[in-house]
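INFO  loader      accepted 1 record
INFO  loader      residues=108
INFO  predictor   begin
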Amino acid sequence: HTVQFATDDLVIDLSPPQINAVELAETDNRLTISVAASDSLTPLTGIRLAFNNGHAVELGQPTDGILDSRSERFETAIDQSLIAIATAVEVYVSDSAGNVAIRRMELK
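INFO  predictor   done
INFO  writer      dumping tokens
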């Protein structure tokens, strides 16, 4: 008797995703943030926006509505009253291997 097992290819991803672009658009009452990110080996799992006034937003849904790719775009609009005293936002992008990329953006 013999037994043979087969598994999917093993992927070891130790590199963080890449934050390709972060765009900020301010109006009188809203701040719109758009983030484009990608990873060369594993799918993205979402982003977190952490403002330096303590407010944070987590996005697990990309603009196309399906979180299934190694390249995604995320967008959200935040009420200015929630981030009135914030002067910066940190963008955290994570992949399915647990790696995280961080970019700090100054607010005007």
